[in-house]
Write a structure and sequence with these properties.
Elements (H helix, E strand, L loop, with lengths): L1 E7 L4 E7 L5 E5 L2 E4 L6 E2 L1 H12 L3 E6 L8 E2 L1 H8 L2 E5 L2 H12 L13 E3 L4 E4 L2 E7 L8 E5 L2 E3 L21 H12 L6 E3 L14 E3 H7 L9 H12 L8 H8 L24 H13 L2
Parallel strand pairs: 3-6, 6-8, 8-9, 13-14
Antiparallel strand pairs: 1-2, 2-3, 4-5, 4-7, 10-11, 11-12, 12-13, 14-15
């Protein structure tokens, strides 16, 4: 198994290139599409670098795997699929995420049976990647659709865990729950102690290198929020108190509009231009609740 990782510094995101060196089958996990929210301009330089590396190594990109619907960066999954023919896999929970955020943005699926992902994944599913077998573990809590991908001695955990000194992800997004996240982290900590945990994010300080991976043993012993000595009720109280102080991620509104479409741009308007929508003076929670109430009244 070969793992090459790329850190996108603006969003602090890790994109991982996973490959079977025998068959040269490969997957890209959590690819980033750079986006400037001020101008609305995108930049493909980062994902082009990943694809260039894969091409130089003669890898065949067969899968793009999302750990969840990201709220802090746009996914480049659709671009990779168009360039390579790869399939896009994500949690089956994306269906509920799409419903919630269609309510937020006042959009709808013309045909709900047609989704932009090639495979919806659940607990225990497996993906063949050459001679490698990728197993799916559901690890909700940060979001309801969070997955961990297990392959050999590696676990790609998305936002479920951060580096030990940084702790764990927030749980106040729609579908998030601190107790559920603690349970998911406990499952990860039950993996063999030598298992390498590969991150989706790290935000290094000035002059510091980003942390890419660490072992289960290190996380169990050192994670400042959830380690082997942490009680569930203490974790929930800490997480709820901490989350109440956090603002929304800078790119949450553009990210989710694109990411629930597997990285495809919104449909163009009558003038042929795609637009992103921003709710005016209404919170995400209010819009989801209002949408749920309207549906219940139908």
């Amino acid at each position: 198994m070969q793992i090459t990782s790329f850190h996108e510094p603006v969003t602090g995101t890790w994109t991982h290139l996973l490959a079977d060196p025998v068959t040269l089958s490969a997957a890209i996990i959590d690819p980033v599409w750079e986006f400037d929210p001020v101008s609305g301009a995108t930049d493909t330089a980062f994902i082009e670098n990943v694809l260039r590396e894969a091409e130089e190594r003669q890898y065949r990109i067969e899968w793009v795997l999302e750990t969840h619907a990201h709220a802090d960066h746009l996914t480049a999954a659709d671009q990779v699929r168009k360039r390579t023919g790869a399939q896009i896999g994500c949690s089956r929970g994306i269906l509920e995420v799409r419903k919630n955020f269609n309510r937020v943005f006042g959009t709808h699926d013309a045909d709900p049976s047609k989704i932009p992902f090639d495979r919806l994944l659940s607990e225990g599913d497996e993906i063949e990647l050459g001679q490698l077998r990728i197993s799916v573990m559901e690890t909700p809590g940060h979001t309801s659709d969070s997955l961990t991908y297990l392959v050999a001695d590696a676990a790609f955990v998305g936002d479920t865990l951060f580096a030990p000194a940084a702790g764990t992800a927030r749980c106040d997004f729609p579908g998030g729950d601190a107790g559920t996240l603690f349970d998911s982290i406990s499952r990860i900590h039950e993996l063999p102690p030598e298992t390498r945990i590969f991150l989706c994010h790290d935000y290094p300080g000035k002059g510091q290198a980003p942390v890419r991976d660490f072992t289960v043993a290190e996380s169990r012993d050192q994670n400042i929020h959830a380690n082997a000595r942490t009680r569930r009720e203490d974790y929930v109280a800490m997480r709820q108190e901490r989350d109440a102080t956090l603002g929304l991620p800078r790119l949450i509104l553009p990210s989710l509009q694109v990411n629930i479409r597997a990285g495809a741009a919104p449909e163009p308007d009558a003038n042929g231009v795609p637009y992103l929508r921003t709710p005016f003076n209404r919170s995400i929670a209010e819009l989801i609740q209002a949408g749920s109430a309207a549906k219940a009244g139908d």
